[in-house]
Amino acid sequence: MRVRDTIAEGSRRVNGEGPGEWAPRRVRDGKGAKDRVTMLPSSLVQPLRAHLVLVHELHDQELAAGVPGVYLPYALDRKFPNAPREWAWQYVFPSDRLSTDQRSGLQRRHHLDEQNIQRAMRQALRDAGVAKPATPHTLRHSFATHLLESGHDIPPLEICVPNLCASTMFTF
Q1: CA-CA distances (angstroms) from residue 42 to 59, 160, 161?
Q2: Do residues 2 and 9 touch, judged by C-beta distance below 8 A?
Q3: Staple 112 to which of 7, 62, 126, 144, CB 3.0 to 4.6 Å?
Q4: Could you tell me which residue, 24 or 145, shows the higher pLDDT?
């Protein structure tokens, strides 16, 4: 899953239901404006739900304070005027501060910036003593490699990890 797909995800799209070790989930309007299916490890379902409880509390506090809600892409805020304030449209990983919406001039909460994830990855590498360079994108390839090594076929993986190239995966 790409960083952008993760941080820009709305709470209405999160699911952790499904049998087995990996729960399927659909990413809508991802890179290239494409929809695709990816997997959420079942071990992350409970921590994600706990995180969403905290995000929901933040959302409730902001509604009480009169914050107009989140930025919505395209014309969704005109089509669904209440949507920016509804829980279902809130970001799973909201920014830690409000920012000015350039379209409306309103103070809103946007999603976490991608650079925060990249900085956290660099810090985690330093903390772990890993000298080899790696990025969040590296994890996508490592994930696919792990699945291949555990016996999964490439064609289903290409659905979950677009632009999969088996020859490059094993270099990670």
Answers
A1: 26, 16, 18
A2: no
A3: 7
A4: 145
